[in-house]
User: Fold this.
Amino acid sequence: ASRAKPVDVDPSRLSITKTTDPKELKDPATLLFGREFTDHMLTIEWTQQDGWMAPKITPYQNLSLDPATCVFHYAFECFEGMKAYKDKNGNVRLFRPDKNMERMNKSTARIALPTFSSTAVIDLIAQFAKLESRFIPDQRGYSLYLRPTMIGTQKTLGVGPPGSALLYVIASPVGPYYPTGFKAVSLEATDYAVRAWPGGVGDKKLGANYAPCIVPQMEAASRGFQQNLWLFGEQEYVTEVGTMNMFVAMKNKETGQKELITAPLDGTILPGVTRDSILALAREKLAPEGWMISERKYTMKEVAEASKEGRLMEAFGAGTAAIVSPVRTISWKGEAVDCGLSEHEESGEIALRMKGWIEARQYGDEEHEWSHVC
Ligand code: PMP
Assistant:
């Protein structure tokens, strides 16, 4: 049962109240992820009775919510992470926003929050991003991180479908994930905690999926590892890395054919926009070079074996924040599984090429349908 309508989001009803106190721009080189925000925010309220209200762009401000509001008690919250880029002509561009909105509608529907017209909200986000254009540095690697969020706003301790909700979007200027070039990371294969499970909600972007991953992340950090490699089940399937999708490139044991592998979307994997983009690019550009492109289950044992036999070429995480994040080693059962980089290398060739191909489309150097000009 979809909880949208009777009235869908209508961009023609947008009202814009501009700030009278514009912020001073920070030196882009000093930006820390998610700390600085732009002048404005986009908000759209929803009620069960009336559907979606008129969208508003207002000065960035605090929300005022009753302590009994359902989001604080039962985690009626989901979000998205996407970016706006400035191209060489000064146009603001979104990257595959249809994918983010499609995913957000699946997240909201799963937790009894209302769905909405993706095209209407993309239109509003585009207007918002364009209004904040001065916050987007026009250098390569810089962008405006956009955080669409939906919360249940009904004031009740009763556990039930929220009768009211708020969709809002805030924006944070961000710099390159690797300001001085790639830095390959070391992972701890995590088996004592599970990020997602069959029949669960790991394939939805719910806030409730993220808080429980922080303690395992702190544990891994205390042992000197940058991220968790989330394994699943007795077979120790490789699922995701931190908050990124995981890719490995290895040579087939029998045929020697090169294979790029990522876990299939079986309900335990977040359907990453970057993951989808990498698969599409791999099918477009690597398959003709003889690569096999696989969405399939694979185990930590298989990765360790390939490493031992010198068949593991590289491994990397994939997500909006970094695009790709090369992996040097995986600590598994007290053993350091080498992921194929030589001592002086910080990235494998596939990760490097993928980053270049994706950036070309994000920044509009290559005109492509993935890029949405605002
Ligand atoms: N997996 C998880 C658990 C994530 O939180 C993210 C970030 N949204 C991703 C993968 C990567 O998704 P995307 O490429 O859409 O950023």
The chain has a mean pLDDT of 96. The pocket of 4'-deoxy-4'-aminopyridoxal-5'-phosphate is lined by residues 81, 240, 243-245, 270, 272-275, 319-320 (CB under 6 Å).
